[in-house]
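Customer ticket, subject: "Can you confirm the structure for tRNA (Cmo5U34)-methyltransferase?"

Message body: Hello, I'm evaluating your service for our small team and ran a test protein. I'd like someone to confirm that this is what the system normally returns, since I don't have a reference to compare against.
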Amino acid sequence: MNDNISAFDSKEYDMQIKRTLPYYDEIYQQVVDLVKTCNPNALNWLDVGCGTGKMAEIAFKNIEVEKFTFCDCSFKMLEIAKERFTYPNTEFILCDIQEISYFNEYNVITAIQVNHYLQREERKKAVQSCYQSLKENGIFISFENFAPFSDFGEKIYLNRWEEYQKKQGRTSLETNNHINRYNRDYFPITITEHLELFNNCGFRAAEILWVSNMQVGIWGIK
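Agent reply: Thanks for trying us out. I re-ran your input and got the following:
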């Protein structure tokens, strides 16, 4: 059994996720580029589902961060992040995204590959929690697996994803097990539903940042 809700144990997460998720490093660069465009000043940043700290690694290299809060529901993931980042302007919170209780505190909140593990009502609660934690004009950026619009599209996308993983050296059993997690261990929604959710939670603007394979980046401004 894994020590977190992702497909991989925390000790092997960073190695395995790159073999599984196309453009994994590019996803984080896209986030940083958008943040720099929207708000180039010193930032209070909350990363929900922080894992081992990949978002922080990229953020600290590219942006002036006044405070960075690491948040994850996995104790093991959070411990790895604590070992990696010993800066004085960091904070570590063991918490589920639905339980975030800040108000008007952060300029940026990110959730990378987090919310697709939630059911629809849970997902709505999670996005609402992030919305209320943002300052006015703050930005929320979420990257998730998404659901295609048709059964045919779903089949094509999943086959393509399976082939990508095989090219990265994963076995047929590993790739098959991962593909079978779709709608069993995580519950994607369409890109249209993503945008509607952001609008319904109060964001005055909701846009698409990035789409590739079965991953989408959505951002909203409070």
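A couple of notes from the result: The chain has one domain: 10-148+188-221. Confidence is low (pLDDT under 50) at residues 4-8. Feel free to reply with more questions.
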